[in-house]
Every structure is written in C-alpha cells, then in structure tokens.
C-alpha cells in the first residue's frame, strides 16, 4: 500500500491494495519552501554523534 504525501502531510495519490503503479507530479517550489523551513543545520547534535560530512569526499557524477 503505497502513497505520495506532500510536506504538509496531505496524500497526493494513493495506490490500491493490488499491484499498481501510481503517478504524481510534484511541485518543486512546494518542496523547496518546505526544505527552507526545516532548520536541519541548527538541529545537528555533534556532541552526540560524529559529523560524517567532514569525511565526505566530493566525486564527479
């Protein structure tokens, strides 16, 4: 039972109980706005866990 849910928790599309493929068009501006309002950089707790981003190596795609 799969579904696509927007950042506000609203179900955009929901699959039935059988095998099914669902399609949904996402609005990038809605996703960008939600990401701006999530202060993940302020909620990090490096006093509890290691900053794994310091070990990251940039790789060409």
UniProtKB/TrEMBL annotation:
GO biological process: asparagine metabolic process; glutamine metabolic process; oxaloacetate metabolic process
InterPro entries referenced in this protein's UniProt entry, alphabetically: C-N_Hydrolase, C-N_Hydrolase_sf
Domain of life: Eukaryota
Domain annotation CN hydrolase: ranges: 1-28
Taxonomic lineage of the native organism: Eukaryota, Fungi, Dikarya, Ascomycota, Saccharomycotina
PANTHER family tied to this protein: NITRILASE-RELATED, OMEGA-AMIDASE NIT2
Gene Ontology CC entries for this record: mitochondrion
Name of this chain's protein: CN hydrolase domain-containing protein
GO molecular-function terms, A-Z: omega-amidase activity
